[in-house]
Structures are given as C-alpha cells and as structure tokens.
Design a protein that fits this description.
9-stranded mixed β-sheet; 288 residues; single chain; TIM Barrel; 12 helices; alpha/beta
C-alpha cells in the first residue's frame, strides 16, 4: 500500500538490482547477458560537468575549465549543468536567462563544434513560453538536448515546448515506475526520457521503460548521478538497449584510473558493451 511511489519504490529498485546481481553470480555471467536484448557495439559516455562557485564569475570559470578538461580527456560528449536560476539553482545563485545563454555560448566556443553538448537547467522555468524564448536563442549552438526545463508535472507545458523548438527536450530523472513515464511520453511528448535505474524500480522496471520508449520512437538517456554502482548498472542497461546510445558518466570524482580503465577501451569516446558489463566490478564481488 505504501510502495506505489517514493522511498518504497527506491527500495524495490535496490532489491531488484541486487537480485539481478545474485542471478549473475549464480549463473557466472554479467548481468547484461541476462537482461536479454541485442548487445550494442558501443555506448558513448558523456561527462556531466557540475561547476563550483558562489558567484556567476566563479561558476563560469569552473564550467569552462571542466568543459575543456572533458574535451582534452577524450570525451566526445558532455552535459553542462547550468543551474543558476529557479528552485534548484546551485549555491544560491539566481541569475537571468541572458546568463544561461552566455554560458552555453562560451562553452560551445571553448570546446569547438565537434563535441556533443547537452544542457541541464534544473527546472528553472515555470512557463513553457518563457522557456521557449530562451531555447530559440540556444538553437544556434547545436545542443543535443535541454534537460528538465519545466516542473516534472507540467506535462502540457512539456508538450507545447517540445512541439515548438528544434532542440530535443529531456526529462524523467525523478520519475518512478513505467506509468509515470507513460504520462511523460504520451502526454508530455518529450524527445528523450531519463529513467534512473535505482529510482524507477530497478532493472526490471527500467527495461519496461526502455521498451515503451522504443515503441514510441523515443531516445533514452538514463539518469545516473550518485555512485559507481549506479554507473555500472546503467551501463548494463544501455549495453542491451538499442535506443540508448549514450550513458551518464559522473560525477567526476568517479574518474579514478581503475574506473576509467574498466569502462573505456580507447580514449573515452566509446564504451564497449563487453567492457562495463563484464569488467566494472567491486573487487570481483559483483556481476555489475
């Protein structure tokens, strides 16, 4: 009765992931081989870049430094966390739309035209028309998607925004169960859905979301933020999901030499399906 949403669903997700892991250990196989589906040749890891700084100038300097670091390290894609406005603004910053546009413009100039850029604005606009005015200014910078421009429950706003801009709209990091994602896709009409494997209900529910998205021609870019366990679990899901072509690789504190070695076969531009699924383990105690 109390696990339809919230912490109960997160707990179910943790248990589900653990059961799949135990299944993998018992079968002597990595989890991705047990999930079914067609293995992908590679997955593109993108670096999520969370700046520091208590002023706009400090935030800008930090973001530009991290963006150029990611490019030089070898990432071919990065997500700019430009969270400087709205209820989830970082470090008490409250800046205007001009600052958002300027940060995107400077980051694009810094990393060049070849790098794929995504932008997370953390629910900063309350009105889809306000968001659209800014997105039209951002279209010239070749952004792959803008993440969570509106509150999660503003499905009508998402529908109108997605239909009015050339930039893909992404959302779903907070959503739980396939039913909330069905609303986001059917009513919200977003282009990219972002289930978090742990939060949505584990591998079992995440696979359902991926299939529902595939049926509707939607891309899936899973949310993953907290730990190496989440990153590894997300890689397993992506390894057998044709509509997932990129996977979140963050926070940057996870980029230890051993973690990178297990994920990335060449220069961090692609992640082979055989790599994260069989090699990303914690002391050989996990089939993740």
């Amino acid at each position: 009765m109390t696990t339809r949403r919230g912490a109960g669903t997160c707990a179910i997700g943790a248990i589900d992931m653990a059961i799949w892991d135990l299944y993998g250990k018992a079968a002597g196989k990595p989890v991705w081989q047990l999930l079914g589906g067609v293995p992908q040749a590679h997955i593109t890891p993108y670096a999520s870049l969370l700046p520091s700084g208590t002023t706009l100038a400090e935030y800008r300097e930090s973001l530009l430094a991290k963006a150029t670091w990611a490019r030089d390290f070898g990432f071919s894609a990065a997500k700019l966390e430009i969270c400087i406005k709205g209820p989830y603004a970082h470090n008490r910053l409250q800046e205007g739309d001009d600052a958002i546009v300027q940060l995107v413009a400077e980051c694009r100039q810094a990393v060049g035209p070849e790098m794929c850029i995504m932008v997370d604005v953390a629910y900063c606009w309350n009105d889809w028309k306000e968001a659209l005015r800014v997105l039209r200014r951002l279209e010239q910078y070749d952004i792959f998607f803008v993440e969570t421009p509106l509150p999660s429950d503003d499905l009508e706003g998402y529908r109108r925004l997605a239909g009015a801009t050339d930039i893909r709209i992404a959302a779903g990091e907070w959503l739980q169960t396939r039913y909330e994602f069905l609303d986001l896709m059917n009513r919200g009409q977003v282009d990219v859905v972002q289930p978090d494997v742990g939060r949505v209900g584990g591998f079992t529910e995440a696979l359902r979301v991926v299939q529902l998205a595939r049926d509707r021609g939607k891309l899936v870019v899973p949310h993953c933020w907290k730990t190496g366990i989440g990153a590894a679990a997300t890689a397993h899901l992506a390894a057998v999901s044709p509509n997932i072509d990129s996977s979140n690789f963050c926070p940057l504190r996870l980029l230890t030499p051993s973690f990178v070695a297990n994920w990335c076969r060449t220069n961090s531009r692609s992640t082979e399906a055989a790599g994260p699924a069989s090699a990303t383990r914690a002391g050989d105690q996990s089939q993740f």
